[in-house]
Amino acid sequence: MTTHADLEARWRALGKVANGIMPTVIPLDPIPNDLTVFETDLRILARHVDALVKAYADYFTERTGHKIEARYTDDQLLSALDGNLLFEFQDAAEQLAQDLADAAA
Known about the structure:
Elements: H1 4-20, H2 32-36, H3 39-64, H4 76-83, H5 85-104
């Protein structure tokens, strides 16, 4: 059972996580791994935001009786990032690896 206090606790936890994130620095001359570790910051944030979204849906369902399908609540932010921004990070790392390999040949 999700209570209003659970929602408040999720918000506080999210605040602590966000406050503790030190954004990864990408050096001026990055190597491919420098670009892929950058996604860790966003994955950490997404995990906590997604838990908050799920808690809201659970609380809503418990209070109203209206069932919300898991596809609308589970991993919403992570799924959006994974298919878009995180893919771009990975693609850029792969392209950089190829460029460095070509330059070394």
